[in-house]
Amino acid sequence: MAASLVVAPPQAADSTLPSSLHQQLLARQWRRIGLLLAALGLLALAVLLSLGLGSGSLTLARLAQLAQPGSLTETEWHVLTQLRLPRTAMALVCGAGLAMAGVALQGITRNPLVSPYTLGVSPAAAFGAALAILYGAAMVPGWGSVITVLAAFASAMVCAAVVLSLASVRSVSPVVLVLAGVGLTYLFAALTASVQFIASEQQLAAIVHWTFGSLNGRTWTEVAVAGSAWLLVLPVILAQAPALNALAGGGDEVARALGFAVTRVRISVTLAAVFSAAAIVSFTGVIGFVGLVAPHIARLLIGGDHRWLLPFSAVAGALLVLTADLIGRLAFAPVVVPVGIVVAFIGVPLFLHLLLTRRHEIGA
Amino acid sequence: MNAAPLLQVQDLSCRLGGRMVLEGIELTVTAGEVLGLIGANGAGKSTLLRCLLGLQRRSSGRVLVDGCAIEDHDGPALARRMAWVPQPKGAAMGMTVVEAVALGRLPHRGTPGAADDERVVAASLHALQLGALALRPVAELSGGERQRVLIARALAQQARLLLFDEPTSDLDLRHQLATLQRIRALAHDEGVGAVVVMHDLALAARFCDRLLLLAGGRTLAQGPWPVVLTPEHLRQAYGVEALVAETHGLPFVAPLRALQGVPVHV
Amino acid sequence: MRFSHLRSSHLRFIHLGSEHRRSVLKGAAAWGSAALLPAWAQPGNRTEVVDDAGRLVALSLPLRRVVVFNRYTTEFVRALGAMDAVVGTDIDVARQARHARHARYWPSVTAAMFAGSSGMAPNYEAIVAMRPDAVLTPRNSDWARAATLLAPLGIAVVVVTAWDYLKHESNVELLGRLFGQPQRAEALNAWFRGWRQRLGERVAGIPVTDRPRVYFEEVGDWRSVLRGSGWHDMIEAAGGRNLFGDVRLGDSRPGDATGPNATRGSVNNFSVDPEEVLTRRPDAIVKLQPGQYEPHPREFALEVLQRMAQRPALALLPAVRAQRLYHLSYYLAGGCSKITGALQLAQWLHPQRMRRLDPMLAMDEWLQRWQGVPVQRDYAWSLAELRA
Fold it and tell me: What pTM was estimated for this model as a whole?
C-alpha cells in the first residue's frame, strides 16, 4: 500500500518528528495564533478609538455607557451609527480588501512589488472617475455619484481584463505580467493627467479630490456594496491558499507537478483580487500603498504560508487604514487630511525600513 | 511486486519551435526498477521528462501512468502517482525545509491520506537526514542539501513513480553516491519506479537497471547497460571514441577522443 | 518693427531666439538714442503700476492686446468696455465659445484664443504667438514663472485677482488704468460701492449672535472654505458667519495677499469632518454648484439639495428640518467680485432686513449693463422654493 513509501518502515521512534522539532513547530504554530490574536486585539482597539474619538459629545467615556439603554442622546446615537460606524466599517473593508488583493497578486506573480496599484487597477479607476467628472456625468442629478463609481469600476475592469488576458496566456511569465502592469499604471496615470489638463478649475478640484482616496462621509450603502464585493471574493482567494503556497515554493512547473491547474488558479485569483480592489477603490478613491505594504508587514511577522498570511494581512491592512484615517481626522481637526495621503506617510517609511533590514527575506 | 507497468510511453513525439525534439519514443517502467535516461546535451532528455509530467505539450503519442493517460487523471490524483524532482535552482527560497517538504503533501489534501501528513513529512525528513536542518531556511542550504529537500518533497508525495532530473549534477562524489544508492534502494526495497536523467554514464550504468540512450530525439538503444553502452552507440550518440569496460564488477566508461566529421544528432 | 520690444531693454533677457535678438538689438539701439531724450519724449511712454501682488510693473498704456486668465477678470475687462483688447483667454472662457449653448456669453471669443487651461498651466508658446502687451493673471496662478519666461519677450505679467471681494475696488481701478478707461472703472466701482453700501446698511449692527452660521459647501462633498478665501469674505459681507471661519492653517492671515503665504495650501477648498459640521450646528447650508451663464434646470437644483438633506450627517440638523438649504450657482456667486453672491446670501440669511433690496436687480444690472448680455434668472434656489 502506498502509505508506507519511505526508506525505512516507520518505527515507533520515527513515527513523529523528533520531539524537539515537534515542539519547535508547535511553538511556531502557537506564535502565529498569538500574533493573529494580538493583531485582532489592536484592531479592536483601533475600532474603539475610531468610534470614540471625534468632535462632539460622543467620547470614549460616553461610549462606555452604551451598555445602558437610553444613555446616549439621539444625536450621539446618530453620530455613532450613521457617521462613525460606516466610516470605520469602510476603513476595515478597504484595508482588508486591498491587502488581501495585494497578497494574492504577489503570490501568483511571485513578485513582491505587485499590488492593485502597480498593476494599474487603481490608476485605471481614477481615470474612469476623472472621465465621468470631465463629461459632467457626475453632475447628473440623483445619479451623479453612482455614475462616477460605475465609470471608475468599469475602467478598472478594463485594465483588469488586459492583465487577465496576459495572465491566461500560458507562455507569459510573471515578470512579463508585472511589466505590463507597470506600463498600464503609467498609461492610466498619464490619461488621468491629460484629463486634468483639459478640465476646468472646478472639475480639476473634483478629480484631484478623487485621486487622493478619502473615507470622508461614507454611507452605509457604499459600505454594503464594497463590503459585499470583498466578502464575495474572500472565499475564492482563501481557497487558493494551497495553490499560492505551491507557486511560492517552486514556481509554475512545480505547482503543476503538484497537481494544480496553474493557469486557472492564476485567472481566478487575479479576477478575484482586481474585482474586489476595483470595487473598493471606486468608492473610496485611490488609496495606494496598503496593497503593497500590508502584505509585506504580514509576511515578515507571520511567514509565507498563505493560509496564515492571507487573513493576517487582511487584519494588518485594516489596521493600517483605520489608523491612517484616525490620524487624518484628528491631526488637523476639523480639517480632514485624506487617508490616502496619511497612509503614504506611514507606509513609506515603514516600507523602506523593512526593505533595507529584511530584504533577503522578501525573497525570490 | 505489481506486474502492471507504472509508466508506459507510446510513440511520443514533441515539436518545439519548429523542430522535432522527440520522435517515436517508447518506454515502459515497472515497479521496482530504475530507468536511466542518457544522451548528449540537447538530445531531448529533460524535454522527455517534462512530456511525461504533462508540463510540455506533446505533438503525438500517449503517456500512461498506472494504465491511464495522464490527461485523464485529475491533477492532484496524478501528483499522488507521479512525483518530480527537478533541478534545485531557485527552489523554495522563502521557506524553511519542513515547509518545503510539506508542499509534497498538497496533492493529498481532502483525501483520507491527509491525516498522515505529519507522519509522512517526518519520515521523509528522516529518510533524507534532514532532521537537523528542518527549521533552516532553504535559501541558506548548500546545493546538495537543497537536492535532498527536493527528494524529500517527492517522497512526501507518496508517489510510486519518481522522475529525477539530473539529481547528481551539483553534488560531490560522496553525495552522488548517497543519492543514487537511495534511489536504487527506493526502487528495490520499496517498489518505487524511477526514471533518472543522468550525465555520468558509469554511474548510470551502475545504479540503473536499464538505460535508454537518446540521440537526436530518437531512441538509439534501450536495455541493460552492456547492450546500450557500446563504442558504436557512443560514437553515434556523443561523437566520441570511447572505451567501455567492466572492472571489479563496476562499469567503466572513458572517452578517448572526439571524432571529427561525425554528426552528433542534436 | 514694433516698439513694444523697446521695453525689453530694462528687463532681463535670456533665452532669445535669433529673430528676437535682432529685434532687441534694434530696440537697444533705439533706446540708446532715446536715452538722450527727455522722459516725456521717449517713445512708448511707459507707466509703472502696482499690481495685486505688490509688484511694480512698467507698461506702455493703454494695453492694446492682452491675454486674460480667470473668467472674473475677463468679465471686468468687458465691463470696462475693453473686450476688443482681449486676444487670449483661459479654457473656461475659450471652451464656452465652442459650445453653442454658451457661445452667446462670450460672442467675441473664438476657440483660437485659447492660451492655456488656466493661470496655473499657461501655454507659453500660444501666448507668445498672440503677441500680447501683457498677461493678466490672478494671484493663485504661476505668475512668478510666467513673468520670468515672458519678460525677455517684452510681455509683462500683471497680477489681478478679480475674485477677491476685499480688493475689488483697487483691482478695478488698476484695470481702468491699464485699458485707459478710468471713467468706466470709476463708474463700476461706484456701482459696486453702492450695492455694497446698501448691503452694509442692511446688515450693519447685527450682533454676532444673530449672524447665522453658514456651512458653505464647495463643489466636492464635505469640502468647505476657510478664512482667506473669497467665499469666506462673501459670507461675512452677507451678515453671516462662516462655520469654519475660525480655522487657521499655517500663517496665512486674512487679507495677506502679498506675502509668501498668500495662497498657501489653497484656503479655497478643504475636506472637513462631517461630524464637525453636525457638532457646530450651522443655521444655514449653502451648496455651491459649478455654473455658467446658462443657469441650472430647477430639477437639478432640487435633486442636489434633496440628496444633501438626506446625508446622515446633516439630516438631523434643525437647519435641514427648517429647509434652510440653498443652491447657489458659481456664476451668480462670483459675479463682480462676489457682490451679487453676497446680496443673494444676505437675502436668505436676513430676509426681513433685506426687504426691498432685490439681489436679482443687482444681477440684472451686472449682466445687462456691464456684461452686455441678456438677463437670466434661476441662479439661486432655496429648498423651500424648490419644494413648493
Answer: 0.79
